Amino acid sequence: MGFTRVLFVDTRWRGDHGIGRFAREVSARLTLPYETLTERGRPSSPLDAVTRARLKLGTNDVIYSPGYNCGPSRATTIVTIHDLIHLDDPAQASAAKRLYYELVVKPVVRRAGLALTVSEAARERIEEWIDDDSVQVRVVGNGSSEAFRPGPPRETSAAPHFLYVGNLRPHKNVPVLMQALALRPEYRLTLVVKDSVEARQLAKKFEVAGQIEVVEHVDDEGLAALYRAATATLFPSKLEGFGFPALESYLCGTPVVYWEGCRSIAGISDGSGVAVESDSDAEAWASAMDNAVNNHSTLMLAPAEQWRTRFGWDAVASSVESALRTAL
Predict the structure, then answer these.
(1) Collapsing DSSP states into helix, strand and coil, what is residue 144?
(2) Which superkingdom heads the taxonomic lineage of this protein's source (predicted)?
(3) Choice between 3 and 293, residue whose per-residue pLDDT is larger
């Protein structure tokens, strides 16, 4: 007689952005019956590595986490590793994080023989890190809100206006935008960030305070309006697991200016937008911004809805469910 395996999903990740958005959208679409792993604690806390919720489960149980968190358990645990920026970005890496990934995450993934991720670039990096040919790293992709869609034609008579969406961590490489902006005093930049004080300090440092606007606490509809109003979205990041702002921008019909070495953004762009050869040359970024101004209508090589087809939450959830069925 066979044993019935029970699926437990860590729903604590559910939120509005990044992993939270992924967790919310995927868990809402799963058709597999599942139980909630636990409601206690934060999944990103180091203390979450050892929990009664995991320890009490048996060998016939399966845990699915939409994030990277895991811990000792007799159950098979499938995690979603969105990227390894915690390890690869010197500003974020630490001995504690390296130990967590080596002593907690890696053994769990090797035991399961499977991990999920969101892009081909992330898959290649995770395979290099896991260093085990018996482990399958499956790309399930990412999606985006229905709020991000094309709108009325942009007002071309307005001054060139660019958009940045993200945080100000070092790997996001925002200073190169400030330097480029200083070379083009007629250009304007809106930054959608959580830390408005730090953003304004950065602009002041590069003497472009009069060229920027900082926006906080914007919902999807408001953010979509900002994308549609922009000449282009600027994405100078050196390292990304996926890159939601790039996808959202294309869905709104607005091209993206990005560093060509950021493979996940290059993959989303698929030939559209403006690829900048250097991640640090301010003149190269200023020239790319000029390109976006002068050739705006030619930089979208496909209609915005093509990105909707490529990156839809229904398809993502279906891919996750297909992977989970192999463990059940």
Answers:
(1) coil
(2) Bacteria
(3) 293
Confidence of residue 243 (pLDDT cuts 50, 70, 90): very high
Look at the block and give the residue holding tokens 């925002």. 174
Residue with tokens 């180091």: 46
Of 33, 131, 115, nearest to 69 (Cα)? 115
**Fold match, 6-143+312-327 / 161-310:** yes
| Lowest pLDDT segment from 149-163, 204-218, 222-236, 250-264 | 149-163
Burial of 275 (0-12, 13-18, 19+ CB in 10 A): middle
Name the residue ranges covered by the structural domains of the chain: 6-143+312-327, 161-310
Tell me if residue 75 falls in helix, strand or coil: coil
Q: What is the DSSP string of 220-270?
A: HHHHHHHHHHSSEEEE--S--SS-HHHHHHHHTT--EEEETT-HHHHHHHT
Q: Express as a percent the part of the chain with pLDDT over 90.
A: 86
Average per-residue pLDDT in the chain? 93
**Nearest in space to 248 (alpha carbons), one of 219, 223, 231, 267:** 223
266, HSE (Cβ side, Cα atoms, 13 Å): 13
Quick one: average pLDDT of 205-225? 95
Helix (H) or strand (E) holding 287: helix 282-294
Residue 244 amino acid letter: F
CATH number belonging to the domain at 6-143+312-327, selected among 3.40.630, 3.40.47, 1.10.10, 3.40.50: 3.40.50
Q: pLDDT tens digits, residue range 54-82?
A: 999 999 999 999 999 999 999 999 999 99
Q: Which residues make Cβ contacts (< 8 Å) with residue 128, sequence separation at least 6?
A: none
Tell me the CA distances in angstroms from 224 to 145, 148, 192, 218, 265, one per residue in order: 10, 5, 12, 10, 19
- DSSP strand pairing (76-79 vs 136-139): unpaired
